[in-house]
Amino acid sequence: MTKTLTELDEATPNHGVSLHEVVLERLRDYITENNIRMGERIPERKLCEMFHVSRTPLREALKVLASEGLIELLPNRGARLRTLGEEDIRATFEVLGGLEALGGQLACERITSAEYEKIERMHHEMYKHYLRRELQEYFRLNRAIHNAVIRSAQNPVLWDTYVNVSSPMRQIRYSANQNIGRDRWSEAMREHELIIELLRQRNGRELNGVILTHLRNTCMSALEWLAQEAVKATTGDA
């Protein structure tokens, strides 16, 4: 039987996972997977029912997402998902590309064998989800791999900056894989194969360029997908 969030919190008091943290991650995933579109109001009552929680932990999670720039809090009117324009998205991906490229280069100098082996295992597991067309599971591992590479750079300033810049882009990066016309998902998988191989070789110079290309392609695909969704909305096909 599926446990409610409250039951999960009570069942694991010694693992350092609070109800607030569980709600926050569930809410992040719910938004990332395009269940709420940019500019739409956050359906607090519906989410409380889905997550089996009161409004207090949900609103605490909303405050965190507001501090990350993902949502906007409306005085006495709840919250809505932040709308990002094309220029905002392009500018943010330019910064993300630089951060991830630097992280990859430093990781080639500093990553341990154990860290690399963990990333490689996640990559193989991600590939299985790709073959089964399981986008949600694929994306969670994809995000974990990107995070692991940055962490293995062993630069806390880089990590903190990356988290702050990348958080509002989670939904955008997820959407890039839904661009069927471009088949970005297959393209991204091939790029990840190369990233893992260059990381294995500790080839920081080439990895730097591959990661920059990877982020540029993700940005272009996401913008194309958003344009397609805008057309659907105006024609009533959404």
Helix content: over 70%
Q: What is the CA-based Rg, rounded?
A: 19 Å
Determine the CATH superfamily of the largest domain: GntR ligand-binding domain-like
- Count of folded domains: 2
- Characterize the main sheet: 2 strands, antiparallel
Q: Which spans of ≥5 residues are poorly predicted at pLDDT below 50?
A: 1-14
Tally the helices: 11
According to CATH, what is the class of the largest domain? Mainly Alpha
Beta content comes to: under 5%
Task: Report the count of strand segments.
Answer: 2
Q: What general form does the structure show?
A: globular
Integer average pLDDT: 88
Q: In whole angstroms, how far apart are the ends?
A: 34 Å
Cross-sheet strand order for the largest sheet: 1-2
**CATH architectural name of the largest domain:** Up-down Bundle
The class by helix and strand makeup works out as mainly alpha
CATH fold-level topology of the largest domain? Four Helix Bundle (Hemerythrin (Met), subunit A)
Helix/strand order, N-terminal first: HHHHEEHHHHHHH
